[in-house]
Specification:
By secondary structure, this protein is α/β, with parallel strands linked by helices. It has two domains: about 280 residues, Mur-like, catalytic domain (UDP-N-acetylmuramoyl-L-alanine:D-glutamate ligase); about 140 residues, Protein-Tyrosine Phosphatase, Chain A (Alpha-Beta Complex), CATH 3.90.190. The chain is about 35% helix and about 15% strand. Helix 3 crosses helix 9. The N and C termini lie close together (about 5 Å).
């Protein structure tokens, strides 16, 4: 992590581009297809791509794949969203975050080609990313879906090397549907004819949807639990598929859910045609992989300094029911290693299931402090979040921001200092990193 930086040149371009469409989200491929044609089809000149959809775990799975590939000496492009502190985090070119000058130039090229036509900010910035990926040599592109899959801007790629679907759960119901089957159908929209499909562990109805979509596309399927598996084995990870066994270390990313994400990453790389990686690369990559704001323990900084002496401060961007359940399991693991009173500091958007996210912490958290999500993100009021926590039996209060929440914490001297978990929104997580003087690099 690097120190936070002041405003940079691309910001003014992004502000200008954000005015090209009245909605932040408007799922359609038509605008992207038009812009790709105007740009000379950069999406057809990409390195072999691994396209990743799913509800939870996409970023962590990509982090594992990148670390493994780089351990094998490969040059890797990465596209993820949203960013935490600065936009450059979304685009990694051959191992390095894009610098301001080439980012600004690509954004301006996309803007010129778009000629003022309506287009969402995510669509036109994805176009800029594809320009950069098409013109910078690399061995592999790791491409994360923004929302859904079928109509996502990244789905203009015609033939990825592998399609990946991480675990599917209920989220973004306003855009993807209110049932697991409907949401899985949108995610499965990235499946392409005869392109291998790797899936994480799925609920039965989601698994059936993915398998049917793959069958229609005559795409070979590698399903967790059927074609590959990964499990904790005496402090190591045992991975198995039809090509044999791998004995791997536990990742430094915290939580049992990261074992599943690591397994998806390994399965995807082993399914990629023409890619043969040594076992040593898998071992080194699993151990090295890092992904900010995914159960990240914060070190020193001005925000952390406001917590009680000796307190642990953890940060996670989890924001839906499945994310809350995974986080609660991970905190239970921490509790088993060293018991501390757990305090949640939570801010959430109005589109999220607050009760579903908080329910797994009932009986686990000693208290919750609700805070607003900074910025223009349609955040719920702290009072609404606190009321939901109270209804679940979690004592709750409100604070003006995360710093004020940390200022107000106190604990009985007979107990250890608290373990504080700030969670509920990636936007909140990004603000916390910035306030603590940390920028992902």
């Amino acid at each position: 992590m690097a120190l936070a930086q002041p405003m940079r040149a691309p910001d003014s371009i992004l502000d200008r581009l954000s005015a090209l469409h009245p909605k932040k989200i408007d799922l359609s491929l038509a605008r992207m297809e038009r812009l790709m044609a105007a740009l000379g089809h950069p999406e057809r000149r990409l390195p072999p791509a691994i396209h990743v959809a799913g509800t939870n775990g996409k970023g962590s799975t990509i982090a594992f794949m990148r670390a493994i590939l780089e351990a094998a000496g490969k040059r890797v492009h990465v596209y993820t969203s949203p960013h935490l502190v600065r936009f450059n985090e979304r685009i990694r070119l051959a191992g390095h975050l894009v610098e301001d000058a080439p980012l600004a130039e690509a954004l301006e090229r996309a803007e010129t080609a778009n000629a003022g036509a309506p287009i969402t900010l995510f669509e036109i910035t994805t176009a800029a990313a594809l320009i950069l990926f098409s013109e910078t040599p690399a061995d592999v592109l790791l491409l994360e879906v923004g929302l859904g899959g079928r109509l996502d801007a990244t789905n203009v790629i015609e033939t990825p090397a592998v399609s990946v679907i991480t675990p599917v759960s209920i989220d973004h119901v306003d855009f993807l549907g209110s049932t697991l089957s409907a949401i899985a159908g949108e995610k499965a929209g990235i499946i392409k004819p005869r392109v291998p499909v790797v899936s994480g562990a799925q609920a039965g109805e989601a698994e059936a949807v993915i398998e049917r979509a793959a069958a229609r596309a005559r795409a070979p399927v590698f399903m967790c639990g059927q074609h590959w598996s990964i499990a904790d084995d005496a402090g190591r990870l045992a991975y198995a598929d039809e090509n044999g066994l791998l004995d791997l270390p536990r990742p430094r990313l915290v939580g049992p859910h990261q074992i599943g994400n690591a397994g998806i990453a390994v399965a995807a790389l082993r399914a990629m045609p023409g890619l043969a990686l040594p076992a040593a690369a898998f071992e080194a990559g699993i151990l090295k992989a890092d992904w900010p704001a995914r159960l990240q323990r914060l070190g020193s900084g001005p925000l952390v300094a406001r917590a009680p002496a000796g307190a642990e401060v953890w940060l996670d961007g989890g924001h839906n029911a499945a994310g809350g359940e995974a986080l609660a399991h991970a905190v239970c693991e921490l509790e088993e290693r060293y018991s501390r009173p757990l305090v949640l500091v939570v801010g959430m958007l109005g589109t999220k299931d607050v009760s579903g996210f908080l329910a797994p912490f009932a009986g686990l958290a000693r208290a919750a402090v609700a805070v607003p999500v900074p910025g223009d993100h349609m955040g719920l009021s702290p009072q609404e979040v606190a009321a939901t926590a109270q209804a679940l039996g979690i004592p709750a209060s409100v604070a003006a921001d995360v710093g004020a929440a940390l200022d107000g914490l106190s604990f009985h001297p007979q107990f250890p200092p608290p373990r504080v978990l700030v969670a509920g929104s990636l936007y909140l997580a990004g603000a916390v990193l910035a306030q603590n003087g940390m920028v992902p690099d």
